[in-house]
Each structure stands twice: as C-alpha cells, then as structure tokens.
Design goal:
By secondary structure, the chain is α+β, with helices and mostly antiparallel strands. It folds into 4 domains: about 1-95, Rossmann fold; about 120-185, ATP-grasp fold, A domain (Dna Ligase, domain 1), CATH 3.30.1490; about 190-320, 2-Layer Sandwich (D-amino Acid Aminotransferase, Chain A, domain 1), CATH 3.30.470.20; about 325-425, Glycinamide Ribonucleotide Synthetase, Chain A, domain 4, CATH 3.90.600.10. Helices cover about 30% and strands about 30% of the residues. The protein has 14 helices and 23 strands. The strands form 5 sheets. Strands 10, 11, 14, 15, 16, 17, 19, 22 and 23 form a 9-stranded antiparallel sheet that branches. Strands 3-2-1-4-5 form a 5-stranded parallel sheet, sandwiched between helices. The radius of gyration is 20 Å and the shape is globular. It starts with a strand and ends with a helix.
C-alpha cells in the first residue's frame, strides 16, 4: 500500500515511524514532514492545510490511504476532498471535525448525549462573559471556541485570572477569530487522563490511554502548552475505567454524531477528568494527541496500517489492537521561551548518541535540515525523546539519559515527567 501522512510534528513522526514497520507498506510520503520524518518517509513540499495540492498529489501518485495528523486540515475539509476524489482517508469530515473546531458545538453534543461533563455556557459578548464569571466565581475555566493550537484554555484559579483570560481571548484577540466566541465552564477537580478510541462512524474501539503534562514548568507550573511529555499506560486508567469511558463517554458521542448526520470516522481523543464522582469528559479532539501519540505508537504491538484502514473502510468490528506489556514515556524538548517567543534555527547536536540509548527513539516535532545537513530547531516543541522499558520509572531513566547526550543549549525540558506515576510507585 502507498500511504500519505499529512502533518509535520511529533505526532506525525510517530505515525510514520510505526507505519514504516508495516509489511503491507510499499511507499510512504509525509507532507510537509520534518528532519526526523525524512529518515522513514519521503517528505513533500506541500503544506498540511493545502487541501487542493494534497488531493492532487494523492490522485497523481495513486495513494491508497491518506492519514491526517493535525486538526486544522480536518476542520478545513481535507477528508471530504479525499472522499470526493475516491481516495481512502483516515480522519473525520469537516462536519464531524467540528467536535474540535468548535468547543461550543462539542459541549452541546456532549450535553445532548447525556455524557458526564462540566456545566458550561457559550458567549459572544465580552461584557456578558465578564458578568457570568463574576457571578460564578473561581476557580473556573475559560476557553476559546475555535482552534488555538492547544493553548486556548485557561484554568483560572482566581477571578482576576478569569477576567484577564476573557480580555485576552475576546478583547485582545490573542488567538484571532478563535476567540470570537468563548466557552466558560465548571472547574473539575481530579486527575486528568487522555483516552483514545477509533471510530468508523458506527462503533468504537479502545486505542490506548496516556497522561500528558500540559504546563510548561516542573510541578505543573506556568502557562499551558501543547504538551511537555506523556506516559502510557496511565495507572489511573484501570481496565474498569477503560470500559466505563468507552461506554459512557465515547460511544454515546459516536451515536449522537451519526444521529445528527455527521458520522464520525477517525480517532476520537477524550480528555477525561477522573473525579470523586467518576470520569467526566473535559473535551474531545479529532486527532491523536501530541505527545500522547508518541507513547501509544511505542506501545502498539499490532500493525498500525490495517487498523487505520479498517476505520476508514467501516470495518472496525474486525480489528482488536494488541499492546506491549512494557511502558513508554516521552519527554518534549522545547525551544527556550516556549510557549512565548523563542529563537529559531538553532543547531541540535548529539541526536545519534541519544538514539543509541537502549529503548530510545528520538522523534522530531519542529525540525528542519540545514544546507550542511545539520538539524535545526524550527518550532516551539522540537523533539520528543521517547523511551520504552518494563516500567514507567525505567522508561523515564532512559529518556533522561538520552536527553543528557543531546547538545542543544537553546533547548529545555521538564525534569518531572510521570511524577504522578512515580508518586504511586513510591
């Protein structure tokens, strides 16, 4: 099979790395890819959101399956354009991708499906939003309705924080049009987990769980980011919780989306808060998480390609993903200053030495090759140092041992990834 992966981040490197191991694969492209992806796939000079160019390439090269990594091309209708051209595609239609494209729409679907979640209210008027927050008090959660690259959420512990978030999102438009509408919702206390399922529009299959670390600093301090590290399995997601999440949080949404004429095909990523009252849905995303995808692919025992194909073709009832017994952990290395302004095109050395550590694969997120062949940091989150081992603790030791071999003075990482799992072990 000939496969085209769309995207250029750590999630897409993990998908390409896993797909490249498939005996069914004959050719693998990635658009636009990055310096690390270039080692396992042929990178194309086509942007991830250039829908006409991606479809034209897939047609001209008889691509058998398009695998869409990020949310933005899905919201723009890449899956619809592929289907219109009779190209098999893994990823939801634009109508179904609104589950991530609009947090307000997503909350409406969740509420209508009877899925346990936080109370919420939608706002297009800044004064009404401010008044609501003053009425409800803090802690409270303020979100942009539209896409904001994982950064449009503020968990405000004080009233001043909540009001400042409203002013920045809706008044200053720090996330552009994504802040034209806000969703303000209840703060849920508990332990957060990422739970993944594949859907073919009719049914859903569990596709692993992980715990992410959203805040930039050790001890979960500082602003939210796209994710600074993750590990899987997450001890908090027991087999009983897996089953409950599928039955109470995911399948009702799949059924509701089918009922409203927006059947959901692809991966459904449920952000879940495990509260004293049981699991509650925080949000849905319409793609694999980044960096969660990195640890899921490291743990997946099955061939990924036939699983994605079964989802695209409506045959998910015929597959059952198998998982390795070992744990996986990823530490994200980011450019100094991230998630604020950061320097680009700094040189990263020592990647080969890092990758030589037992059980370690260095996945690239924001990199490019310089003219002299040097690896350059071009993004905010730049590397995902991914390690597998018998336990989370051993995987963590391997990941940080690999990081010690990387020579990149302009980069940084959190030093406490998997602290919850460590505390449980202790």
């Amino acid at each position: 099979m000939k496969v085209l992966v769309v995207g250029g981040g750590g999630r897409e490197h993990a998908l390409c790395w896993k797909l490249a191991q498939s005996p069914l694969l004959t050719r693998l492209w990635c658009a636009p890819g990055n310096a690390g992806i270039a080692a396992v796939a042929e990178c194309l000079a086509i942007g991830a959101e250039d829908v006409p160019a991606l479809v034209a390439f897939a047609q001209a090269n008889a691509v058998d399956l398009v695998v869409v990594g990020p949310e933005a091309p899905l919201v723009k209708g890449l899956a619809d354009a592929c289907q219109a051209a009779n190209i098999r595609v893994f990823g939801p239609s634009a109508a179904a991708a609104e589950l991530e494209g609009s947090k307000g729409f997503m909350k409406d679907v969740v509420w209508q499906s009877g899925i346990p979640t936080a109370w919420y209210k939608r706002f297009t008027d800044i004064d009404a939003a401010r008044a609501f927050v003053r009425e409800m008090g803090a802690p409270i959660v303020v979100k942009t309705d539209g896409l904001a690259a994982g950064k449009g959420v503020v968990v405000a512990m004080t009233l001043d924080e909540a009001l400042a978030a409203i002013d920045q999102m809706m008044g200053d438009k720090v996330f552009g049009a994504a802040g034209d509408e806000l969703v303000i919702e209840e703060f849920l206390d508990g332990e957060e987990a990422s739970i993944f399922a594949l859907s073919d529009g009719k049914t859903a299959v569990f596709m692993g769980a992980a715990q992410d670390h959203k805040r930039v600093g050790d001890g979960d301090t500082g602003p939210n980011t796209g994710g600074m590290g993750a590990y899987s399995p997450a001890p908090v997601v027991t087999p009983a919780l897996e089953a409950e999440a599928l039955e109470r949080l995911i399948l009702p949404a799949v059924r509701r989306m089918a009922a409203i004429g927006r059947p959901y095909t692809g991966v459904l990523f449920a952000g879940v808060m495990i509260t004293k009252d049981g699991p509650k849905l925080l949000e849905f995303n319409v793609r694999f998480g980044d960096p969660e995808c990195q640890v899921l692919m490291a743990r997946l025992k099955s061939d990924l390609l036939p699983i994605l194909l079964a989802a695209a073709e409506g045959r998910l009832d015929q597959v059952s993903p198998e998982w390795k017994d070992e744990a996986a952990l990823v530490v994200v290395m980011a450019a100094a200053g991230y998630p604020g302004p950061y320097q680009k095109n700094t040189v990263i050395r020592g990647l080969e030495a890092a990758g030589a550590v037992e059980g370690v694969t260095v996945l690239h997120a924001g990199t490019a090759l310089g003219k002299d062949g040097a690896v350059l940091a071009t993004g905010g989150r730049v590397l995902g140092v991914t390690a597998s081992a018998a336990t989370v603790r051993q995987a963590r030791e391997r990941a940080y041992a690999a990081i010690d071999r990387i020579d990149w003075p302009e980069g940084f990482c959190r030093k406490d990834i998997a602290w919850r799992a460590m505390a449980r072990e202790a």
